[in-house]
Amino acid sequence: MSKILPAIGLISAALNNFNPFPYDAGFDIEKVTQLAVDLPSHSWEFGATAEALIELENPQFSVFGVAPFPVANVSRSKVRALDYVANNVRLGGARYDALDRGNGAAGDPASMGVFAVMLGKRDEGFANAASRTAQGLLEDVPRMQNGAISHRANTAEVWADFMYMVPPFLAYYAADQEDLGLLRETVRQCRLYREILQLDTDQPYKGAWRHIIGPQSQDTGLWSSGNAWAAAGMTRVLATVMKAPVAATNETWQQGAITTLTGYIKEILDGAMGSNHDGGLLRNYYQDVGGPHGFGEISGSSLLAATAYRMAVLQPSVFGQRYITWAEGIRRTLGRNDRNGNPHITRTGIATPAVNPLGWLDTRPFTTGSPEGQAFVVLMYAAYRDCIHSAVCSRPQTEGSGSNFGTGNGSTAGSRRMVKRNHIHRRAPHGDRRSN
To answer: Per DSSP, what are the bridge partners of residue 209?
Structure first.
């Protein structure tokens, strides 16, 4: 196992003097990060930003750190991701919604579950909420015919998005509780989701997943963000399986799970890389080459690039230079202007164009700041930095604070002052993420 584990211990510096931005991203990553913190108003957005913050600022505590288990007992005042979740969580739900009471999406509250486990080391309220969330997902939520846990609470539906919310939490919770059975069930859920969502095709995007299968919100398109949610989520599960001491108690199962998850992630990345790109970015819907849904966008592109960097470290024998080169292409594209001369990262840090974060069927590129899109860019930078520190990616010629590259004249429309987003729950039918 020691040969598989990444060398991220090189960046496990003291909390007070670690520089999270040692390399120029090609754009102002610090401003991107600030908007990722400021813009969220929904549970899954808070969870995505918290994950971005811990990977960026406290990598030793993320599952990509060299020794994330046992879970650290650390003050929330020392880890911004923990304080961020503690300040934004809405405790009080009975079971699956214990971290976001009243949420109609069963899967979304679990996006904050990893941080509830960490906070629970010092706060029993969070420990109880993490436990109730896990129990509710396993026992109360509807399931598909093959046993896949529904993303929705009121009807059985599978969403690719679920893969970033629920399996990483269940795997982390299982590792903390030393529950091999739950860890095995988590990997099984990845298989069950793949059974339903992976498209059977021989097209260049072979391996890609459809977005949603279910009676209310069905979307059989190959949504770039959905594929990114799935691949990145399974990468977090993989890192947990590789490093959780409880997994090593059954090495035969552990090695099989590592091989299986690695294969699933590779399929999705290969499908993305094989798809027809637009202006150096993945299309919002891979197969819509000539239609309005096929515009290149930053959200799925950035998170899949982050996944490629992570897998190049976790499994370098499988994810070689071809994957790094592709991820580098996405990162460098974000540091340039689009075909109309507009910067992909504006002067104020908005990553653009994104898909509408509350309506994936909106054909208009979203340019006022997507909370999840901002977080995905931060996740990409953190993975890029760690890939360099692991001596897998090449060290850039220019080093600095990570924010030395201005990107031209950009709108300030994505600032906290100008973006008004009500605290509504997503996941309603017909391409609108709001639920009733």
So the answer is: 198
Residue 99 has pLDDT above 50, yes or no: yes
Side-chain-side CA neighbours of 72 within 13 Å: the count stands at 19
Helices 224-243/371-389 angle, 10° precision: 40
Coil, strand or helix at 178: coil
**Closest listed residue to residue 349, CA positions, set 34, 104, 46, 79:** 34
Rounded Cα distance between 216 and 18, Å, is 46
Domains in the chain: boundaries: 8-422
Return the structure tokens found at 282.
Answer: 């993945």
**Of 431, 428, 357, 372, nearest to 152 (Cα)?**
428
C-alpha distances in angstroms, 200 versus 205, 207, 211, 228? Answer: 10, 8, 14, 18
**Which residues 6+ apart lie within 8 Å of 334 measured at CB?**
25, 26, 27, 298, 302, 344, 345, 351, 377
Cα–Cα dist 123/119, whole Å: 6
- Size of the chain, expressed as the number of residues it contains: 436
Enumerate the β-bridge partners of residue 354.
Answer: 366
β-partners of residue 427 are: 433
What's the fold here for domain 8-422? Glycosyltransferase (1.50.10)
State the Cα–Cα distance between residues 62 and 71, nearest whole angstrom.
Answer: 9
Residue 364, classed as helix, strand or coil, is coil
Condensed to tens digits (0 to 9), the pLDDT of residues 312-332 reads 999 999 999 999 999 999 999
Distance, CA of 145 to CA of 399 (rounded, Å): 52
d(CA 231, CA 161): 10
Give me the helices (H) in 198-320, please: 224-243, 251-274, 298-314
Q: Element (H or E) spanning 416, and its range?
A: none
Q: What is the pTM of this model?
A: 0.91
